[in-house]
Amino acid sequence: MATEDGGSSVGIDVRGLYKIFGPKGASHVDAVKAGMTKAELQEKHGHVLGLKDINLSMPAGSIQVVMGLSGSGKSTLIRHVNRLIDPTVGEVLVGGEDVCGMGTRALRDFRRHKTAMVFQKFALLPHRTVIQNVVYGLELQGVDEKRQQEDARRWIDRVGLSGFEDNYPNQLSGGMQQRVGLARALTNDAPLLLMDEAFSALDPLIRMDMQSVLLDLQQELHKTIVFITHDLDEALRLGDRIAILRDGEVIQEGTGQEIVLDPADEYIQNFVKEVNRGRVILVESVMQPGASEAANIEIGQGLALESAARAMSGAGERVANVTDENGDCIGHVEMDATVAAMVAEDHRHTPTA
Amino acid sequence: MSWLDEFPAMDKSALRALKKGIDNGFRAWTREHGDTIEAIFEPLKQMLIWSERLLLNTPWPIILGAIVAIAWFASRSWKITLLTFATLVLIGYFDMWEDTMRTVSMMFVCTFVSIVLGIPIGIAMAKSNFLQRVITPILDIMQTMPGFVYLIPVVMLLGIGKVPGLLAVVIYAIPPIIRLTNLGIRLVDKEVLEAADAFGSSGWQRLKNVQIPLAMPTIMAGINQTIMMALALVVIASMIGVQGLGQPVLQAINNQYFTLGAFNGLAIVGIAIIFDRVSQAYGKRLQAHSEVVHGN
After folding, report:
1. Which of A84, A126, A194 is closest, CB to CB, to B197?
2. Shortest CA distance from A129: residue in chain B
3. Is A282-343 a domain of CATH 3.30.70.60?
4. Among A157, A180, A288, A316, which one has the highest count of C-beta atoms within 10 angstroms of its own C-beta?
5. pLDDT digits (tens, 9 = 90+) for A171-205
6. How confident is the model at residue A3 (pLDDT cuts 50, 70, 90)?
7. What is the residue extent of each domain of chain A?
8. Residue A348 pLDDT more than 60?
């Protein structure tokens, strides 16, 4: 099976996915479709609604974050991508292929070659050394031993664990163990990387550090990454797109900026309140059309408000022109508007439905 | 009011007829199939004879050296190795070497058979809740039934000798290894198993790479228990002709030879301690990775 070099061309399409936990899940799908809530299903039939009508399109080569609190179904959702959990109804298309329709063999091959996963509690094999853990995927693929070792050492080096190859996992700190988990997943050389709350068990500083490691790697790897988290800051930092889950339903899907600027309901608004807006909202959102005569400095398109304000204040300017990647001016921003957008109260959400 | 004083039991003659009927039925069955059953157990008999000859015909210094070497390589502990050496020397000095070798041989074969049968049964039990529900009560019966009771059908079936002894010992000694293999595999961390699945392990790879290694400490505890129980039954098995340290003990009971009983009893204790310490130290060494813990 050929693996893609460089960027991943494997996107994920989730269509009409339902998951009802319980002995007779399938028989309650129609009731749920007709509007039965999670609480009702639990009370009347003793079944748990895991996921309800999930439709998500995750483009190839980007980071899709799925965010939600515990019990929202986010871990259930990611486990449908490599079918660690079987759906009740629905399709999960990975690179155009329906994962749910695969036989045992095909599924095993798919898991070996197309996906790799990083787990919240690392899930390393405690009786194997770091390098023996990292080669695990290649071992299952049947790659010859010499290449296993070479690839594993390269990725161990990339995640900054050189010199620890022969240590056992419980000789390492949590952060280092998760680096092993990441190296193990990357060594698999799969186009799809599934990360289930991969950094949630780590200290805040180490978590930031691991986020940077992931973003740096993604700059060159362009894998399709599904990243699960309960932390909005992490979601905004990593996600090209973010889907927010509650009670098994997607309640909003979009870029980080879209979610911060226009939260779909009060629930999301409560999350967004605590967010550092200056780092999420981009200058385009406060940009005025046309170049400004008064502007003496230029800032790049796609800059966050905080950086833009810093650039202006550093240069002692009240206004700056915004340029695209070719250096052409596409508009201008004013300091007042920039600061106002950063410190703005959330515009009260008015229920639309 | 006689039914109040005495439990209204089954009619005496009917009861006698019932017992007789079952006994005769079983006896007829054994007469009919005795040869077939003996043929089935022939390989085990050969194995028992081979292992006993090996231990008895090899000059004692070689056996002593081999056992001490095994103790050292398994435990890597001077203390345990020295203990092994001293115990064996004492046993030999008090003229119990041959009986001890017979017992060790018997125990070795019984443990081997228990492991070969017990681990797969334990694994199957861990995989299926149904099997667990079926096998658990059988194991309970095997463990609580007095050892003497299942000597009877075994003797009826196979007469007296090594093989029936082996059968009795294995029935008695196999439950711990089955139970603990089952338990060990069921206790394996679900997330690690999920990781094994996520990377595309087959059922066999999952078992070989994850379940058995992670269940190993528990399985080793089971093997250790099995060895101990096999030794404990050696005395009882001597009643049906199993040679070894049990026979002098039986003789001592019949004739009230206290010292003879005590010496042979202590020899059994001695080898029990050797096998216990060595197998435990080996099990611990297998788990070296769990000893060293990150400093934080």
Report:
1. A84
2. B289
3. no
4. A180
5. 999 889 999 999 999 998 899 999 999 999 888 89
6. very low
7. 12-273, 282-343
8. no
Say what the ipTM of the complex is: 0.82
Q: Could you tell me if B49 and B162 are in contact, meaning their C-beta atoms sit under 8 angstroms apart? A: yes
Interface probe for A, chosen from B190, B193, B197, B199 (most Cβ of A below 10 Å), is B199
End-to-end, the C-alpha distance of chain A in Å comes to: 48
**Chains A–B, number of C-beta pairs less than 8 Å apart:** 75
* Strand, coil or helix: A163: coil
Q: Are the CB atoms for B219 and B187 separated by under 8 Å?
A: no
pTM across the whole model: 0.82
Residue of chain B whose Cα is closest to the Cα of A120: B191
The answer to whether the Cβ–Cβ distance between B198 and A110 falls below 8 Å is no
Cα–Cα distance, B275 to B267 (Å, whole number): 12
Instruction: Tell me the CATH class for A12-273.
Output: alpha beta
Q: Is B143 an 8 Å CB contact of chain A?
A: no
Rounded Cα gap, residues B68 and B181, in angstroms: 28
Select the residue of B198, B200, B292 nearest A168 (Cβ to Cβ).
B292
- Closest Cα in chain A, distance from residue B289 (Å): 6
Whole-angstrom Cα distance, residue A36 to residue B273? 65
Q: What is the per-residue pLDDT across B239-291, written as a single tens digit (0 to 9) for each?
A: 888 888 989 998 998 999 999 999 999 999 999 999 989 988 888 887 767 65
Domain ranges, ordered by start, for chain B: 21-286
Among chain B residues, CA nearest to A130:
B289
Does B293 reach chain A within 8 Å, measured CB to CB?
Answer: yes
- Residue type (1 letter), B150: Y
Contacts of B202 in chain A (CB under 8 A): 108
